[in-house]
């Protein structure tokens, strides 16, 4: 039984909040593991954890430097930490009356230093803590405690993103069950799902031109091609394109999860290789409960417009068709570096490719529905696409997409697959700093 002194006055509502996030007893998650590792590195301690305080136990969502799944709640340092507002620290646990009887302090583990920041939801419930632990006494500054609180806030952000993704997947599963009950609902549900795979409108990117094309598969066989464009802050923009395995509602649900995971990862880092690794871990962790393996190919790209009007490009590829750089001089370059498909192998790595787009250069992304198109039994293929792009009449994004679309009209896209194309190009003339500032200010 838990000591009544360690039970918050709103314990019943707090436990409901814990259950709401559906996080207890879930498998390891790369995002939370990285937070624990980051906490240990920042504080230069051997042990860091992310914990959730359950009714009668403290469950560890992530650990660094220690292997433990759960411990009893009483007596518990984490249970005490959720009773205070803000971060707290015990510099020497052997001298602290609330801690010296703790098994971790009195036992062979030898805990001496402990600091924690509560994981507080937007509606004020303290779910657990982010903790840093050392086997020797040490002091901690207010600035360091503030950093620990920031890490706890990131945990909340991850929980919210995960909850949104879970709700999205559950929604799609409910839709699938409804479709199975009534075959007549297939077209309506599939159309709704397809509309969620793409952004409602293409944003305006200052100093650049953006264009996209999407050819939907038959509604009864809704596929999983997707693309997305969103700002990262400053002059940086993210572009993603992908293709998930399978067809129908399951594919659409995985697509929603992939898009949400990419956006969620990009909140934490703009490093394309880390974003792709996070997406890989998300899909790999979501394999349970499915009859067949689920996987995805994708490219995640970060584009930053420079003061000279050029654009710095960094991207990572997970088994997807290579992006094509279309230079203003008519040449083309294929960015072929790639990691494995997403969802197959946990802890896979994804190399980052870099290039610079000068004024008048363009960048083209596409899904394999383009290269799999056929005419008289002949596959369109990578070679025919490269040759066609080398013969393009114009280089801006709209012209590139229109050129590829016209080529597709000469072939028959596979009836079972959808097609996505997205392109971005740099304005052909240098944009001055004053012009850029004016455009960006107008968009704020």
UniProtKB/TrEMBL annotation:
Pfam families: GAF, SpoIIE. Keywords: Hydrolase. InterPro entries: Bact_Sigma-Reg, GAF, GAF-like_dom_sf, PPM-type-like_dom_sf, PPM-type_phosphatase-like_dom. It comes from the Bacteria. Residues 210-426 form the PPM-type phosphatase domain. The keyword Hydrolase applies. One of its GO terms (molecular function) is phosphatase activity. PANTHER family: STAGE II SPORULATION PROTEIN E, STAGE II SPORULATION PROTEIN E-RELATED. This is SpoIIE family protein phosphatase. It comes from Cryptosporangium phraense. The lineage of its organism: Bacteria, Bacillati, Actinomycetota, Actinomycetes, Cryptosporangiales.
